[in-house]
Design brief:
By secondary structure, the protein is an alpha/beta fold. Helices cover 46% and strands 15% of the residues. α1 packs parallel to α3 and α5 crosses α6.
Length: 258
């Protein structure tokens, strides 16, 4: 268990904290392994009634750690589906207890798509949510290719994916991606209050309700299909150009791609 993922159980709420603020909570494979373990615990431990995701620092998550993912891409696309990130995604698909998220600052890539698996989301009014997969010549993940259009509509979802431009917290609420938009200094308190209220509800009733609202096997099947697309793109010339451009702080040049 990496100390960059911290867990605490109190009052039936298992709080999982992204604790890599110096890197804007960019997620490494070691962190994904810890997130998977915590999410599986939330599902199987009777003492846990609610899972809550929060973060330290000024960002929820900058998304995947680029250096980490370049290393996976260099091994070939077939390795991606076996990476710890997919253990976490499977755990999210299977989770049948309520999940709450407290989001401040940037929520990029998995920082946004994770929210699609949360049942209640509190965002800062000035939070910035984005899914710039195509900017990195990649593909959507976490079943977001289905879940995001289902929430915000095809056109808005396609714009989020294709242009990679962020939306703020107020827009996230207006579009159905979050339940509450509050000042940044109130996000954690509001999320804790909602998680506590959920923990006080009839646990079996909540689990059965969530199972009826989600098809875990369908989500996992789609995650695997997305993983194949994501993996093949990771080893592509497009992605290599995007990663190089990211490291060199320049715009990628896809003019010769095709």
């Amino acid at each position: 268990m990496t100390d960059q993922i911290q867990t605490e159980l109190a009052g039936g709420v298992l709080t999982v904290t992204l604790a890599r603020p110096e890197k804007k909570n960019a997620i490494t494979q070691a962190m994904y392994a810890a997130l998977a373990e915590a999410t599986r615990r939330a599902r199987t431990d009777d003492a846990v009634r609610v899972l809550m995701f929060r973060s330290e620092g000024d960002s929820f998550s900058a998304g995947n750690d680029i250096a980490d993912f370049i290393a996976i891409g260099s091994q070939g696309g077939g390795q991606v589906i076996d990476a710890p990130v997919f253990h976490f995604l499977r755990a999210l698909a299977d989770l049948d207890k309520p999940a709450v998220a407290a989001v401040r600052g940037r929520a990029v890539g998995i920082g946004l798509t994770l929210l699609l698996h949360c049942d209640m989301v509190v965002v800062a009014e000035d939070a910035l949510l984005s899914a710039p997969f195509i900017n990195l010549a990649l593909a959507p993940e976490a079943a977001s290719s289905m879940l995001l259009p289902a929430v915000v509509g095809h056109q808005r979802a396609f714009e989020i994916f294709a242009l990679g431009e962020p939306i703020d917290g107020r827009t996230a609420v207006a579009w159905g991606l979050a339940n509450r938009a509050v000042p940044a200094d109130q996000v954690d308190a509001v999320a804790v209050d909602l998680a506590g209220r959920l923990a006080a509800r009839a646990p079996n009733s909540i689990r059965k309700t969530k199972r009826l609202m989600r098809d875990a096997e369908h989500l996992w099947a789609l995650m695997q299909r997305e993983g194949e697309a994501f993996g093949s793109q990771m080893s592509s010339p497009e992605a290599m150009e995007a990663f190089m451009a990211f490291g060199q702080k320049r715009a990628p040049d896809f003019s010769k791609a095709g």
